[in-house]
Amino acid sequence: MEDNQLYSLLDSMSLKEKIGQLIQLSGDFFSTANLSIGPVEKLGISPEFVKLAGSALNVVGFENVKHVQDKQMENQPHHIPMLFMSDVIYGYKTIFPIPLGFSSSWNPHLVEKAFECAADEASASGVQVAFAPMIDVVHDARWGRVLESLGEDPFLTSTFAKTMIKGLQNNLPDKKGLVACFKHFAAYGAVEGGREYNSVDLSLSNLFQNYLPPYKAAVDAGAKMAMTSLTTLNGIPSTADKWLLTDILRKRWGFDGTIISDYASIQEIIRHGFAEDNEDAAFKALNAGVDIDMKSPVYANGLEKLVTNGKLDIEKINDAVLRVLRLKNDLGLFENPYFGASSTREKTSLLTSRKRALSRRLAEESIVLLKNKNNALPLSTEENMVLIGPYADNHALNGMWAIHGSKTDTVSILQGIQKFVPNIPTEKGTDLRRDSSLLAGLGFLSEQEIKRMVSSEKENHHNLMQAIKISQKSDTIILTLGEETYEAGEAGSKTNLELPENQIHLINELSKLGKKIILIIIAGRPLALENVVDKVDAILYCWFPGSEGGNAIANLLFGCINPSGRLTMSFPRVSAQEPLYYNHLATGRPQDLAKGRFVSKYIDAPANPLYPFGYGLSYGSVNYLNLKIDKEVFSKDSTIHVTVKLINDSDFDTTEVVQLYIHDKVAEITQPVQRLIDFKKVELKHDQELTVHFNISSNQLTFFDNRGNEKLESGLFDIICGTNGKQHLTTTVRLK
Ligand code: BGC
């Protein structure tokens, strides 16, 4: 449709029809499956507005989409097609590792390919917009949604944001891509205490420097949609924050796409105490810049009155509607309302072997080897080994936000290992969680499921005895533990990051046998492992690894793949160290300043993490030598050339993530002790030497002041290069 046709369509629409375009409802409103992840409340939306609703939430599958689309278009006076939006967060049917996992690959190119695959599958099934990428920077592992994040670093998150958006949108012209809707604008990842839906309070310099860059990167990468956050930022609900949505996002950054609220977040501004009623909330959200109201009655029941009684200028509504119609038109929905969906594509493009291979590769690159005492790994198939634990023969490896995937399509750890050791003895040993009230509190599991998951005391004792019995006959125990699927993800905040007591008991009992223990952890967040780390010889941290998890884990265990994953979130020793992140400001009394009491630490725990940001081992290790810069003083319009020499003197070919950080030694606002500005993932054959090159320009050295202005100040900068934030070489340069 030409632009002028869009305008005449808009002109011919009634006010009600226009408002309809700004309403998004879930499947239950259209007599199809409801896949809502949020409180289920009666919304009180009239049937008339249901018929006029312009978009659908999480209605997927070609037949469902066609059914709803046909009916809606028939019902609407101008037969305007609906938009179908869905949470395609890390895969549709082929599930990739969770984002906190795949960010540990430090491989944005591979992630782009993974998102192309996800878009290919989901578009075949009728989805047009993905509520992804989630690019909230996170500092607190208590928050369940760290699962969906790319970790604690703004530069790395921005890098992935760009490639995830490209991956989703690359194939839009062929109708095999998805519109990317980045979320949650802004700074949802900084909820106080890591408690879900809690408030966010940040200084402007912190907001601009650490939290906003990924969203800005998303705009620059061409994302066509943005989603607001459920939270307040400095006292203002993000969904009604005109400064955020209009002044920053639209005016300062030039975003001209569509803005959608998060699930019911417009209605929730009333509960935040920022609006009196639906009408007031509708006025504030629309005025702030929100185009579409996701799953709340506010626009449906508030906007019409506001216009008719002259409180709201119709032009505000016209602008929002035009943005929605434009998006529909950009996708060609007026000509083909099903976009790329067809039953043929749906049959041929889901879970193909190529997509599975990509999922496996990404899982292999995501898994982080945390410990490998005396080269306990890789295993030889000749070893006499057993496989123990609640994740041994378990297909639930997808994690909470894989809402369209199925565990029946997932390769279990047992299946993966059986390809190397067909007759490996296996026992569960214990349940994932023994506390059924906690499992019920997760809010997803039925009573029956919980009953199946929690064995009786007697069975549990029997399971433990069986595990001990078969382990006694072995030399090596592969022990699989971790979090239950719904312990992490949305509304999965928790205060205790340690493994549950029953799992620790299993480790303790097995460690008494004096065998080699390889611990495999499946989890959606960093866990506090200090109390178990000395009981085992090796730890592979596998996140929720997705459809090919079992194969990926086995390939690493048996050395077909050398681990190369590096953490993108700091791992605490104990839960109460949270929030914990590497790019913090310097204290006047750092922990290592002096012995004794009066330094910045806890009396019962050190301040530093058990495993720092950027950390991860490989089989064999790489030495860093000769960090060099081509000049010691440089001007604002020149670049510094940095080189570092790597030597792989191990017996393994390896992949190394070379990390480059800076520290601005003196500035108007004190700067982080370290800040990642670049990285390179390189391969080294055994015995190979390699020189790695970086260029640093002055725009990588800027910071934000407390009015949100970007600044570049002359002075000294440390250049820090190494295998992680803690093991590195340092040199210093002066900016003139
Ligand atoms: C989440 C969003 C999600 C939306 C739709 C909300 O609860 O915060 O991330 O996209 O639901 O499912």
Question: Would you write up a description of this structure?
Answer:
By secondary structure, the protein is an alpha/beta fold. The protein has 3 domains: 3-86 and 177-339, TIM Barrel, CATH 3.20.20; 360-561, Rossmann fold, CATH 3.40.50; 620-735, Immunoglobulin-like, CATH 2.60.40.10. 31% of the residues lie in helices and 18% in strands. The chain has 23 helices and 26 strands. Strands 9-6-5-4-3-2-1-10 form an 8-stranded parallel sheet. The chain has a 6-stranded mixed sheet with strand order 11-16-15-14-12-13. β15, α22 (530-533) and β16 form a beta-alpha-beta unit. α1 (3-12) packs across α14 (314-330), α2 (15-21) packs antiparallel against α13 (298-308) and α11 (265-271) crosses α12 (278-288). The longest helix has 17 residues, at 108-124. The chain is globular. The structure holds beta-D-glucopyranose. Residues 37-38, 87, 131, 183, 230, 262-263, 490 line the site of beta-D-glucopyranose.
SSE layout and pairings?
Blueprint: H1 3-12, H2 15-21, E1 23-26, H3 47-52, E2 55-57, H4 62-75, E3 83-86, H5 99-102, H6 108-124, E4 129-130, H7 154-169, E5 179-185, H8 204-211, H9 213-220, E6 225-228, E7 232-233, E8 236-237, H10 242-252, E9 258-260, H11 265-271, H12 278-288, E10 293-294, H13 298-308, H14 314-330, H15 343-349, H16 353-366, E11 368-372, E12 385-388, H17 413-418, E13 426-427, H18 436-441, H19 447-453, H20 457-472, E14 476-482, H21 501-511, E15 516-522, H22 530-533, E16 538-541, H23 549-557, E17 622-629, E18 633-634, E19 639-648, E20 654-664, E21 675-684, E22 689-697, E23 703-704, E24 710-711, E25 715-722, E26 728-735
Parallel strand pairs: 1-2, 1-10, 2-3, 3-4, 4-5, 5-6, 6-9, 12-13, 12-14, 14-15, 15-16, 18-26
Antiparallel strand pairs: 7-8, 11-16, 17-19, 19-22, 20-21, 20-25, 23-24, 25-26
Helix pairs in contact: 1-14, 2-13, 6-7, 6-16, 7-9, 10-12, 11-12, 12-13, 16-23
The chain binds beta-D-glucopyranose.
